[in-house]
Amino acid sequence: STTERTFIAIKPDGVQRGLVSKIIERFEVRGYKLVAIKMVQPTQEHLETHYQDLKTKPFFAGLIQYMKSGPIVAMVWEGLDAVRQGRAMLGATNPLQSAPGSIRGDFCIQTGRNICHGSDSVESANHEISLWFKEDELCSYKHNSQNLIYE
Ligand code: DAT
Ligand code: MG
């Protein structure tokens, strides 16, 4: 449906490297609708909840350390197949496997500094959106271009 939502975040390295506008632009020009955005300095506890499925991985501590090293830009984007297309637009987890033209494939090199996050399923998107945003931070509105982007 055209109201599918995904949680996309620009990680601390993406912010520090000045890639915020470029990453937002990818989603914006494609036609996805921005429904929430904020800059946030996440806490250890919040990040451990966000990445709870990875807590047994050897890289978990380093991942949390990196993710709390500075502010991130948290966003919700809405549109047709937003979760799956969002993942395709970010590229593979390991940037060495991310196709050129994807965000990771164009702007980063190593898995542990891959500049952006995107939900991997509709279920995790809903979970992540409620973890990062309060209900009243999500804006429901009709995109002016709705009838030009969708038939
Ligand atoms: P993704 O971010 O593509 O959903 P993931 O959920 O498997 O990937 O892992 C979350 C993040 O953890 C990933 O963006 C970067 C880090 N990570 C994953 N695998 C890693 C590894 N083998 N070494 C270091 N960091 C890793
Ligand atoms: Mg993931």
TrEMBL record:
Reactions catalysed: a 2'-deoxyribonucleoside 5'-diphosphate + ATP = a 2'-deoxyribonucleoside 5'-triphosphate + ADP
Residues covered by the Nucleoside diphosphate kinase-like domain: 3-140
PROSITE patterns linked to this entry: NDPK, NDPK_LIKE
Keywords: ATP-binding, Kinase, Nucleotide-binding, Transferase
InterPro entries: NDK-like_dom, NDK-like_dom_sf, Nucleoside_diP_kinase, Nucleoside_diP_kinase_AS
Active site: 117
Any one Gene Ontology BP term: CTP biosynthetic process
Positions of ATP binding: 11, 59, 87, 93, 104, 114
SMART domains from the UniProt entry: NDK
EC number from the UniProt entry: 2.7.4.6
A Pfam match: NDK
UniProt keyword annotation of Transferase present: yes
Single GO MF annotation: nucleoside diphosphate kinase activity
Statement: the UniProt record of this protein carries the keyword Hydrolase: no
Domain of life: Eukaryota
Cofactor: Mg(2+)
UniProt family annotation: Belongs to the NDK family.
Protein name stated in the entry: Nucleoside diphosphate kinase
Organism lineage: Eukaryota, Metazoa, Ecdysozoa, Nematoda, Chromadorea
